[in-house]
Amino acid sequence: MNYKQMFMDENEEIKERYELMLERITSFAKGDDSGRLGIEFEKYFKKTAEFILMIDEWKNFVFTGGLENSDIKELKRWNVRLYEDILQESGAYETSYANPAFAVSALGEEYGSLFCFLYTELRGAIIYAVEYRYTELTVLFELFVEVLCLFEEGNCSVKDLKDTLYYYVSDYAESMIDYRIREMIDPKLSFATGIIMESDLSDIRYLYKFGEYISDNEIKMAEFLNGMSEDEIEKMAYTYTHGYEEGFKIAGIDLTKKKTVNIRYSIGQERMVKAAIVQFEKMGLEPIIYRSPVARINKRLTLRPGYVSTSPNKQYDYDHRMDEAIFLNKAFVEKKISITRNAYENRKQLAKEYAGPAVIEVFGEKPFEPINIKESLKLTEAQQKLSVYSRTECSKIVNEYIPQSEYSFTIIAYPVPEIGDNFTEIFDAIVKINTLDNDAYKKVQQCLVDELDMAEKVKVKGCGDNQTDMVVMMHDLKHPDKETNFENCTADVNIPVGEVFTSPKLTGTHGVLNVSEVYLNELKYKNLKITFENGKVTDYTCDNFENEDENKAYIKENILFNRDTLPIGEFAIGTNTTAYVLANKFDIVYKLPILIAEKMGPHFAVGDTCYSRGEELKLYNPDGKEIVAKDNECSLLRDSDPDNAYFDCHTDITIPYDELEAITSIHADGTEVDIIRNGRFVLAGCEMLNEPFK
Question: Could you tell me if 188 and 159 lie in one domain?
Fold first, then answer.
């Protein structure tokens, strides 16, 4: 049974409801209410009704083979029609009801944000139509009609409207959350896989089958990969799939017991993904490829886990990052937790067979600097705590059915054409960086590990305007001849090669971490500064906004994920100076993903350790020593106080070499040994790492 056939019976059952709603909406759109709803409200309802009728037209276009049979001009025309009202560059977003500022200015402070949420949820219909999901389309249209009827009756208070939206989310929470979990672990939901494996990828019209916004990035990337030889594509795919396979071997996990792999990538990369699917199938793994979440109920801030395209408007994404403020309360959270458990329990065999994610990141887009608008919905302090509680409890459930000690992952990254005129040259250079000599780095990094294992603490000091001044405490080694604190990390799960890392002791770790510019989770930070005491965040600021409260809120939302504090989960020293020199040559340092940036200097991660929920798994360095620094004072609470043991986040923050005065290993007897001085490696045995600078 193919993907489309899976929904045929369900769609037939709901067809009557769908057509009834469509008839009602058509009647309203073509009628003349002469301002009976109020001029501004009538404009909103008319505009939204027109959008819904366009979705019906889009649905018919999809169902009658329009995506397969239309020329490229028609497909581009449709793509623009579907996304034009939220595009930043065209200016249309300024007067879109998807813009909280405009919605509030047009409809008033109390109603505006609620109607903006409704309009934004309705935009998910673009995807539901292309995925043949009649039910989701129908319930969205029913929501619109319900709100319309309330206003036509003349007695819709703000409370009535908010209650209607709340009960829509609450009533359909089970189906929306359950479907999201199903598409994350069930390979039968093969919408994207079918496009990739069955389309002629040399004909870029296939890009529009996904229903996502298609920009020059997607088109140019697909065309670029089409210009590569089959051998080049196979080698790129092999680097990616081989790294995944190696991760299981290093962790001692039996890959033969697994049946599925989740491929996450950006649209335009299908030719490489197709080759990877074939290689994964030879390992006995079937692909699971799901898009980033559509409904707000399944979203988390601006994060987009799954396959994605270039965002049509990152400010739009940011403006709606906390729309769950409308429905987030204790009752809803408990319901979500219950639904999550039931969804995994009903699919526990699929969960058991899941091998983990294989991620292809992209970089090169213009760094996004958000603007805070007062009209955007915000979580109250109580809702922030509920959000943290919800994520914590749901993560426990996921780990119960998919233990982190029983799966692995890999991550690799490539530039997008938006990076500039040197895209081809940069892409070729990244391919080479992704395949640097593991053995050479392994030997050099062992020199670092040997010295760091003699350290009681490590001092990291910035230079110039960089105010970094950190003291990081190391764990005691009971058997230094058999044990190590640092992992000698080569290119397997984490490509490219180039770091040694540890989970430091929190007690005694203190100081200031500062970086002039950094790009974290697709958001730019200027002059980010975080203060630590006993390994935990005590203060933080940046220069993104003139108002200090906004700077603190920005960091709390997007780095602390609404927690009051987080511990240091990782201290690492990046060794990939080749990547650093490349980044400076092309002036793309602040466009690189953290995956590469973390290899270009020392970095600290706030959140969980790298071994979160897998601490009992025995791991060894290439020299045979067991890695023992996998815990800190927080993760050690996992049996006695599990709610305070894990935080379900891990954000790496890197200090570039040119902002670094020194990294110094300090022994228990007071001996100090420089590892890096003035941005260069000075430890004996590490001379190779300075060669790229020459």
Answer: no
595 or 423: which leads in pLDDT: 423
Look at residue 686 and tell me if it is in a domain.
Answer: yes
The answer, yes or no, to whether residue 294 has pLDDT greater than 90, is yes
- Cα–Cα nearest to 551, from 301, 369, 320: 369
Residues 622 and 591 in one domain: yes
Please check whether residues 292 and 404 belong to one and the same domain: yes
Are 363 and 284 in a shared domain? yes
Whether the ω angle into residue 293 lies within 30 degrees of 0, i.e. cis, is: no
- Helix (DSSP H) and strand (DSSP E) numbers for the chain: 24, 19
Q: Write down the pLDDT at residue 392.
A: 93
- Residue 10: pLDDT band by 50, 70, 90 thresholds? confident
Residue type, 476: D
Q: Predicted confidence band at 154 (pLDDT cuts at 50, 70, 90)?
A: confident
> Which two structure tokens, joined as six digits, stand for 556?
């709390």
Structure letter (DSSP) for residue 690: G
Residue 240 and residue 114 in one domain? no
The whole domain housing 76 covers 3-171
Task: Quickly state the pLDDT bin for 662 (edges 50, 70, 90).
Answer: very high
Q: Which residues of 90-114 are buried (b: 16+ CB within 10 A; e: fewer)?
A: eebbeebbbbbbbbbebbeeebbbb
Say how far apart CA 375 and CA 111 lie, in whole Å: 11
Q: In what order do the strands lie in the sheet with 410-415?
A: 286-288, 260-264, 354-363, 410-415
Residue 35 has pLDDT above 70, yes or no: no
Per-residue confidence at 34, pLDDT binned at 50, 70, 90? low
Task: Give how many domains the chain has, as a whole number.
Answer: 3
Compute the C-alpha angle 145/150/156, nearest 5°.
140
For 499, the token pair is 């770091």
Give the pair of three-digit tokens for residue 351: 């969960």
Domain final residue pick, 142, 171, 200: 171
Buried b (16+ CB within 10 A) or exposed e, 210-223: bbbbbbebbbbbbe
669, 609 Cβ separation under 8 angstroms = no
CA distance 544 to 548: 9
Beta strand 286-288 with 260-264 is parallel
Q: How high does pLDDT run on average in the chain? A: 94
Q: What is the pLDDT of residues 184-221, one digit of tens each?
A: 999 999 999 999 999 999 999 999 999 999 999 999 99
The closest of 453, 520, 449 to 489, measured between CA atoms, is 449
Say yes or no to pLDDT of 33 above 70. no
Q: Could you tell me the two tokens for 140?
A: 């969205």
Classify residue 444: in a domain, yes or no. Answer: no
> Which of 115, 142, 171 represents a domain boundary (last residue)?
171
Contacts 24+ apart (CB under 8 A), 455-459: 455/665, 455/666, 455/667, 456/666, 456/667, 456/668, 457/508, 457/666, 458/571, 458/663, 458/664, 458/665, 458/666, 459/662, 459/663, 459/664, 459/666
Q: What is the C-alpha to C-alpha distance for residues 616 and 635, in angstroms, rounded to an integer?
A: 12
Please check whether residues 205 and 255 belong to one and the same domain: yes
Q: Of 503, 509, 498, 507, nearest to 458 (Cα)?
A: 509
Q: Quick one: 213 and 246 in the same domain?
A: yes
